[in-house]
């Protein structure tokens, strides 16, 4: 029985801790509304919003109105409650914009714009190269009387799950809202295929729910290297390639009473069927989530299920052996999933409005995407502020390396004001252009922090 010892993290070196403390101390005070407005001036992410007719809306200040919609939706307060705290705007105006001018598709396009702009910042090179993404969910409270709400045994609450895909650069690539009762791995591949940003990861990390055979098989068909966090390692089954091959050092992993062998003939026989399934999903004719639910039925008469199972067995066995043999890989998996947990806490801190105040599943997912867009805007702005502070510190004589910056996450929040009366004057102030380059730090041969 294989056993894995817990590895101790390297921790943060003293200079990186000193740099992080100084950056946090110097972060300029910002309000959430000003962050939304400033990024709207810079990135014009709001250009995707508008009425379904396609004609120009009769709104004098589109930037201001759409910024307010994203701000109020991101913090999860309704139009009528928001109108009490924002001067110069009515609940009807906010409601009209959120309901008629902003759809799920338009929110996805705005999120992709922010992700693309974020990837152009120099500081991001210290955090990752965009080749890795981690997916995990977090429980979100809802009202009882709606289609998606139920009690979550895993999270210990009542509502649904906000399922996020977080890049190794800390930015959210995509988000979904799913019921508590589903196997989260069902939605793993669908979100990756729906990501339209320039960051297209090839390695996917997930929590323990992502280690089933079907998820491994589907990820392989679409060219993703699935490497989830494996909690119950000693209870998993290994499969060997052939009965005729003996592995002197690990042969006992493949079963004591009888060897567990991959059925390659079954895979070869139904490989065309697997390709047809993959093409149907890529062309939008079949939802990967729907397919995964059907495969989870464990029907022994289903030939597609059997073929998927054999592919998944072979791929997962290789992943388990890699996980067993490479301690550094286990460290990267843990670090990636920890980033998702950090993002979940950060997004919940931003969405302080409480329960999702809507029972329509589409509107519930819109609120999750509003929160994702708001979180990405804050991450983008925090990264710019970090760059400005690093320039100041270098001018004062600090020696700052990319490895030190790699140990600082952009989920800083102490300098952000969330509550109070929100002044709409901030919507009209055009900020100075930002500089994406950070020439003061050498990012060549960056050793990405685990």
From TrEMBL:
It holds the Pfam family DDE_Tnp_Tn3. Residues 35-422 form the Tn3 transposase DDE domain. GO terms for biological process: DNA transposition. One of its GO terms (molecular function) is transposase activity. This is Transposase and inactivated derivatives, TnpA family.
């Amino acid at each position: 029985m294989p056993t894995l010892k817990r590895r101790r993290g390297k921790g943060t070196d003293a200079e990186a801790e000193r740099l992080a403390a100084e950056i946090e101390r110097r972060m300029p005070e910002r309000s959430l509304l000003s962050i939304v407005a400033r990024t709207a001036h810079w990135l014009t992410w709001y250009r995707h919003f508008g009425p379904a007719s396609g004609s120009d809306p009769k709104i004098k200040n589109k930037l201001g109105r759409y910024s307010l919609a994203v701000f109020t939706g991101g913090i999860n307060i309704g139009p009528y409650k928001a109108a009490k705290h924002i001067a110069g705007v009515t609940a009807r105006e906010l409601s009209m914009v959120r309901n008629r001018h902003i759809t799920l598709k338009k929110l996805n396009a705005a999120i992709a714009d922010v992700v693309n702009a974020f990837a152009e910042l120099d500081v991001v090179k210290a955090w990752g190269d965009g080749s890795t993404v981690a997916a995990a969910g977090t429980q979100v409270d809802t009202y009882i009387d709606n289609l998606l709400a139920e009690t979550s045994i895993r999270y210990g609450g009542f509502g649904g799950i906000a399922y996020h895909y977080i890049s190794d650069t800390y930015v959210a690539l995509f988000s979904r809202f799913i019921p508590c009762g589903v196997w989260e791995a069902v939605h793993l591949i669908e979100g990756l295929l729906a990501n339209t940003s320039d960051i297209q990861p090839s390695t996917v990390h997930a929590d323990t729910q992502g280690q089933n055979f079907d998820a491994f098989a589907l990820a392989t068909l679409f060219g993703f290297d699935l490497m989830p966090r494996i909690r119950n390692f000693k209870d998993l089954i290994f499969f060997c390639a052939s009965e005729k091959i003996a592995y002197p050092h690990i042969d006992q992993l493949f079963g004591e009473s009888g060897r567990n062998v991959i059925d390659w003939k079954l895979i070869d026989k139904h490989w065309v069927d697997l390709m047809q399934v993959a093409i149907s999903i890529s062309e939008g004719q079949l939802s990967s989530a729907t397919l995964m639910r059907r495969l989870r039925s464990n029907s022994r008469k289903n030939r597609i299920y059997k073929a998927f199972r054999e592919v998944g067995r072979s791929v997962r066995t290789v992943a388990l052996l890699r996980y067993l043999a490479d301690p550094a890989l286990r460290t990267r998996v843990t670090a990636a999933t920890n980033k998702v947990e950090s993002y979940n806490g950060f997004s919940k801190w931003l969405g302080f409005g409480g329960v999702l105040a809507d029972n329509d599943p589409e509107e519930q997912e819109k609120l999750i995407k509003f929160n994702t867009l708001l979180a990405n805007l804050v991450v983008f702005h925090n990264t710019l502020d970090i760059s400005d502070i690093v320039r100041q510190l270098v001018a004062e004589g600090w020696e700052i390396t990319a490895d030190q910056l790699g140990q600082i996450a952009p989920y800083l929040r102490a300098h952000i004001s969330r509550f109070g009366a929100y002044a709409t004057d901030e919507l009209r102030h055009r900020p100075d252009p930002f500089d994406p380059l950070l020439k003061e730090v050498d990012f060549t041969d960056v050793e990405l922090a685990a």
